[in-house]
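Example for tutorial group B:
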C-alpha cells in the first residue's frame, strides 16, 4: 500500500497544484449588434476552435444559450437595462424569466454569471435606482431554484462611475451615485461577487494624447513610467492604473476585499481620420499584451501578483452601432469568421503583427544593458522586466547560474535579453527607455546561457521565477501552501 502511495505522490501534488493555481481568466464578449453574423452554433464552434473558455453575452437569447450547451464554455449572461424596471418591481417577473430563459438549458449550458444592468450610469434614462432591487429579486429566484451558490450576480460599470481616477491612489466614486452604489457594494460583499468594470485605455489615449502616450496605453516596454505621488507606486501601463483607481475607490469606502473583474477591455481595429490609434496593429498589440498580463498573474502595482479576470471586447465588428467610426470596429473577426488580426489566447506566443506568423529568428543578436544608462534607469527597467514584463528572472537569484557577477548591469542584461528574445527580438523590445542596447556578441558565460533564437536556456527548468523587487513572483503564492500539503501527503505515505 505504501508503495502505491509513493507512486501516486507526484500525481497528487500535480492535482493539488492545478486546483490551487488557476491564474487569471481571459474571455471574450460576444455582441450581436450587427448584420450578417454567423449563426450562434457556428460562433460556438469558432470559440471552441480558439480554446476560449469564457464568453460574455448581453442578454439571455435562447438560440445563443442553446448553442453553448455541452461545449464546456462558461457563459456570462445579462439582464438589459430595459428590463430593470420589470425585474425590480415584481418577483414574479424574475421567476418567469428564470423558468423560461435559464432553467431549461442549465447546466448543459454552463451559465456562471448574471449581470443585472450594464453601465447604468451611462444610460440616457436614469435606471440606477432599479439595479439593487433587481439584483435581489434575481438572487431570490436563483435561491428558489437552488442555484444561488452556483450562479453569481453582479452589475457592470464604466470608469465614468469614478469622479477621480488619477493618480490611481486618489480614485474616488462619484458622490452622486452613492444612493445606489453603497447598497450594491454591500450586496456584492454579502454574495461574494466581484465588482465588474469595463476599462478602455484606448479612450484615455484618444481623448488626451498629450497626457497619455500610445506606448503607455499599449503596455509597450518603452513607455515612460508614471509614478503615483501619493504611494510611490510605479505604473508602466494605463490598464493597471485604471484597475488600481477602482481598487483605491473601493478601499476608500471600506470595500477593499471586493474582487475586481474587467468585463470589457480591448482596442478598435479601425477608426475615423482623427482616430489615428485605431489600427489592426495597435489592436493586436494591446490585446496580446493584455492577455499576457492576465494569464501570467502580473497583477497591478497596488496588488502585485493578484489574478484578475478580463473579457476582451469584442468577438465581431458590430456595424449597427451608432457613434464614431471606431464604435463599430472592435472585433477580432469579420462576419465571415476570418480573423482581422492574429491573437494568441495562451499569452505565451509571439506573433508578427502583419503576417500573424510566429517569430523565431533573432538574426544573431542579443540585448544587454547600455553602458550609458544610469543605475536608476537600469533598476527601474530590471524591475519592469522581472515584473510586468513577465521575464523569468530565477537565473539571476542567489546560487543560480547568472547571479555572478552580482552587479546591476549583469542582472539587467540577462533580464533585458530574455524579454527581447521572447518578444520577437525586434528593436523596440530592447529599448527599455534607452537602458538597453543590442549586440551581435553572445553575452553567455560559464554556465550562464543567454536566450537566443530557437535556443532555450539550459538553466534548471524547475527554478521558480522571481521578481527583482520586494514582492514575490505570483507563482510563489501557488507553491507556499503546497509545503503544508506536501508534508501531509508524505505523512500519509509513511503511514
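The residue assignment follows.
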Amino acid at each position: 500500500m505504501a508503495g502505491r502511495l509513493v507512486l501516486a505522490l507526484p500525481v497528487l501534488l500535480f492535482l493539488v497544484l492545478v486546483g490551487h493555481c488557476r491564474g487569471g481568466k481571459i474571455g471574450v464578449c460576444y455582441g450581436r449588434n450587427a448584420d450578417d453574423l454567423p449563426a450562434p452554433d457556428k460562433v460556438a464552434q469558432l470559440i471552441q476552435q480558439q480554446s476560449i473558455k469564457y464568453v460574455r453575452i448581453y442578454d439571455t437569447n435562447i438560440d445563443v444559450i442553446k448553442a453553448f450547451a455541452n461545449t464546456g464554455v462558461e457563459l456570462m449572461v445579462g439582464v438589459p437595462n430595459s428590463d430593470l424596471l420589470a425585474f425590480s418591481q415584481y418577483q414574479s417577473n424574475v421567476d418567469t424569466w428564470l423558468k423560461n430563459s435559464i432553467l431549461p438549458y442549465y447546466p448543459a449550458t454552463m451559465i456562471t454569471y448574471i449581470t443585472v444592468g450594464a453601465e447604468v450610469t451611462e444610460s440616457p434614462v436614469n435606471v440606477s435606482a432599479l439595479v439593487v432591487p433587481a439584483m435581489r429579486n434575481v438572487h431570490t429566484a436563483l435561491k428558489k431554484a437552488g442555484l444561488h451558490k452556483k450562479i453569481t450576480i453582479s452589475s457592470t460599470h464604466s470608469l465614468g462611475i469614478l469622479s477621480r481616477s488619477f493618480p490611481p491612489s486618489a480614485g474616488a466614486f462619484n458622490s452622486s451615485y452613492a444612493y445606489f452604489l453603497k447598497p450594491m457594494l454591500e450586496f456584492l460583499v454579502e454574495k461574494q461577487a466581484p465588482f465588474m468594470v469595463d476599462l478602455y485605455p484606448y479612450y484615455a489615449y484618444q481623448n488626451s494624447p498629450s497626457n497619455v502616450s500610445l506606448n503607455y496605453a499599449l503596455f509597450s516596454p518603452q513607455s515612460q513610467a508614471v509614478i503615483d505621488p501619493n504611494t510611490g507606486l510605479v505604473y508602466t501601463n494605463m490598464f493597471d492604473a485604471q484597475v488600481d483607481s477602482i481598487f483605491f475607490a473601493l478601499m476608500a469606502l471600506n470595500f477593499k476585499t471586493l474582487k475586481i473583474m474587467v468585463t470589457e477591455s480591448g482596442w478598435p481595429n479601425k477608426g475615423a481620420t482623427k482616430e489615428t490609434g485605431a489600427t489592426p496593429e495597435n489592436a493586436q498589440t494591446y490585446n496580446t499584451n493584455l492577455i499576457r498580463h492576465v494569464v501570467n498573474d502580473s497583477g497591478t502595482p497596488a496588488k502585485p501578483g493578484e489574478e484578475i479576470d478580463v473579457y476582451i471586447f469584442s468577438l465581431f465588428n458590430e456595424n449597427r452601432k451608432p457613434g464614431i467610426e471606431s464604435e463599430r470596429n472592435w472585433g477580432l473577426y469579420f462576419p465571415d469568421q476570418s480573423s482581422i488580426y492574429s491573437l494568441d489566447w495562451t499569452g505565451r506566443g509571439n506573433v508578427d503583427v502583419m503576417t500573424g506568423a510566429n517569430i523565431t529568428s533573432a538574426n544573431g543578436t542579443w540585448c544587454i544593458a547600455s553602458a550609458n544608462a544610469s543605475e536608476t534607469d537600469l533598476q527601474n527597467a530590471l524591475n519592469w522586466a522581472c515584473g510586468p514584463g513577465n521575464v523569468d528572472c530565477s537565473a539571476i537569484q542567489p546560487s543560480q547560474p547568472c547571479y555572478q557577477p552580482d552587479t546591476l548591469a549583469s542582472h539587467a542584461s540577462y533580464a533585458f535579453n530574455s524579454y527581447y528574445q521572447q518578444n520577437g527580438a525586434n528593436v523596440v523590445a530592447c529599448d527599455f527607455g534607452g537602458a538597453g542596447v543590442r549586440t551581435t556578441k553572445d553575452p553567455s558565460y560559464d554556465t550562464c546561457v543567454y536566450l537566443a533564437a530557437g535556443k532555450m536556456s539550459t538553466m534548471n527548468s524547475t527554478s521558480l521565477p522571481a521578481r527583482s523587487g520586494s514582492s514575490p513572483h505570483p507563482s510563489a503564492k501557488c507553491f507556499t501552501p503546497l509545503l503544508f500539503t506536501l508534508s501531509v501527503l508524505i505523512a500519509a505515505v509513511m503511514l
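The mean pLDDT is 86. Compare this with the pattern of hydrophobic and polar residues in the output above.
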